[in-house]
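Re: Re: ligand-bound prediction request (bumping)

Still looking for help on this. To restate: I need the protein modeled with magnesium ion bound, output as structure tokens. Inputs repeated here so nobody has to scroll up.
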Amino acid sequence: ARASAASAPITDGALADGTPVPLLANLGKPEGAAEAVTLGAEGVGLFRTEFLFLSSSQAPTVEQQRESYTQLLAAFPGKKVVVRVLDAGADKPLAFLNDAHEENPALGLRGIRALRASEDILREQLTALAEADAATDADLWVMAPMVATVEETAYFTALARDYGIKTAGVMVEVPSSALLADRILIDADFASIGTNDLTQYTLAADRLLGSVAAFQDPWHPAVLRLIREVGDAGRTLGKPVGICGEAAADPLLAVVLVGLGATSLSMAPTALADVRASLLQYTIDDARAIAAAALAANDAASARDAARAAAPEMK
Ligand code: PEP
Ligand code: MG
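Reply:
Sorry for the wait, this slipped through. Here it is.
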């Protein structure tokens, strides 16, 4: 009812054999929700909450947060909406949370580490999310950024459930958590792989530093192997594994990610149409064969070439 009469209906994300691959939106503000729906987002795979915090010298109130989260959830009735709790530090510094004197902030008190050190902020955020959830009909999932250990997973999921969050998971964006995905996914209801940070930490190259930008390529087989670990763990334990880093927006890499075990893909809404069209060209067996070709390469460029050669339909 929401789509304009002029536009053809957009089908849900799926492979050629009908395997569903929900295509979700990465959003940074609730105001982006309407456009994402128009572009065919089946829900939200990553809602970054930093915007609420970045513009201010102190944390927003529970009421301010509840209003924003309610606005977001209300735009997706009956749909999955994955909200990430505050990811402060490194490329997203916050004056009131992060120590400005860290020499290596990407390796410092960021993400879940920073929230743990200021737990009142995390508790307020979970309070606001639970209240927004109660006021709307979306299927709210909540996840923590920069989780590196099984213990952090247990800490976050237990705390979130204390606040009434029904589906609590973690981002996998540190190699340690990819390698331990089979343990992490015992506590976590789901994993969402952040390929931007996972690539940065796997290749040990600052994602914002131009001089090492060539390393920031999620096609690197080392990154793909880590993603496979998570995909395998998800399949074994029957837990969803999403992708929410930029890699999911690359139409051919999206096929590889599904072949590695990703069960949903989240991206900038403008990328949805091309990824939807690409997935429809391949069966799950094709996707696994294309992923195997990429995995066997020595470097990112060869992985891309090998995937292209194994996926001849792709222009
Ligand atoms: C990522 O690291 O891939 C991710 C999705 O999170 P962000 O880009 O916000 O760090
Ligand atoms: Mg990240």
